[in-house]
Design brief:
Layout lengths: L2 E3 L7 E3 L17 H10 L2 H9 L3 H10 L35 E6 L21 H10 L3 E6 L5 H8 L4 E5 L4 H4 L4 H13 L3 E3 L2 H7 L4 H4 L16 H12 L6
Parallel strand pairs: 3-4, 3-5, 5-6
Antiparallel strand pairs: 1-2
Length: 251
């Protein structure tokens, strides 16, 4: 059974199958908040829902009040109106109470694809989503993990406008594969950016600089290398690659 540490009269561990013990009053044991956070992070949505369903109205009200308005927010920006796609947020650090900036990491889950896409872990998040978010959190910013569901387009961008920045981690083609409209999503992000909210990467950067030959386009800038080349035919590759290999190994 999944168990969480919680203050109760005489016991530190309480099974989710006995939710009434979560609200047991009385002196005695106290729980380590870090332990509670770690255990909750390991719980699946189904396990948490089962626990909540076992509460009476008074207990639910207490839980809601303790969470500051509802369990679905899980951060400084309320995202409870959006569908919760991921099964859990295992490994995600607690969001800072007073973040320097409020951020979100947007993902797309392809319904019909195994795990939601080849870039996803079993819980529905991208493999790199939690490390990305934790990097922001360790720098004093919040970073909530959200999913774009095309049926909720308007609600998604209403929520998006409440953040200071959005990290977009939607692989090309996945929004379309899920039944959505990539152009509509991109226009939404352009509007968010026009409102002064940072979007990384922006749709225009993805469109014009997303391919591997983007390195060639910045070759003459101070961040590039002038001998960065791209080949689009067998003939130019044969001539150019042999020529450059004469001097030193190439990447």
């Amino acid at each position: 059974h999944f168990e969480i540490a919680f203050a109760s009269s005489g016991a530190r561990l309480t099974s989710l199958q006995q939710p009434d013990k979560l609200f047991a009053m009385g002196g005695g044991a106290s729980a380590n908040p870090k332990d509670v956070t770690e255990q909750l992070g390991k719980a699946t949505d189904d396990e948490l829902k089962a626990m909540v369903e076992g509460l009476d109205d008074e207990q639910k009200a207490k839980l809601k009040a303790a969470l500051g308005g509802g369990a679905a927010a899980f951060g400084p920006v309320d995202v409870s109106c959006l569908t919760r796609v991921a099964k859990d947020d295992l490994g995600l650090l607690p969001q800072p109470a007073e973040p320097a900036y409020k951020g979100a990491l947007a993902q797309i889950y392809v319904r019909g694809a195994t795990f939601g896409g080849s870039d996803k872990s079993a819980n529905g998040h991208r493999y790199d989503s939690v490390p990305f978010a934790n990097g922001m959190i360790n720098s004093g910013m919040s970073c909530q993990l959200i999913h774009y569901v095309h049926e909720e387009h308007d609600k998604f961008f209403e929520v998006a406008n409440k953040f200071n920045f959005i990290i977009v981690r939607c692989n090309p083609g996945q929004i379309k594969n899920d039944g959505g409209d990539q152009a509509k999503f991109d226009d939404g992000m352009r509007a968010v950016r026009k409102a002064g909210i940072q979007v990384w990467p922006s749709p225009d950067v993805m469109e014009f600089m997303g391919a591997k030959d983007a390195l060639c386009k910045v070759a003459t800038l101070n961040i590039g290398l002038e001998d960065t080349l791209a080949y689009y035919s067998t003939e130019t590759f044969t001539e150019g690659f042999k020529k450059t290999m004469k001097f030193q190994p190439r990447v």
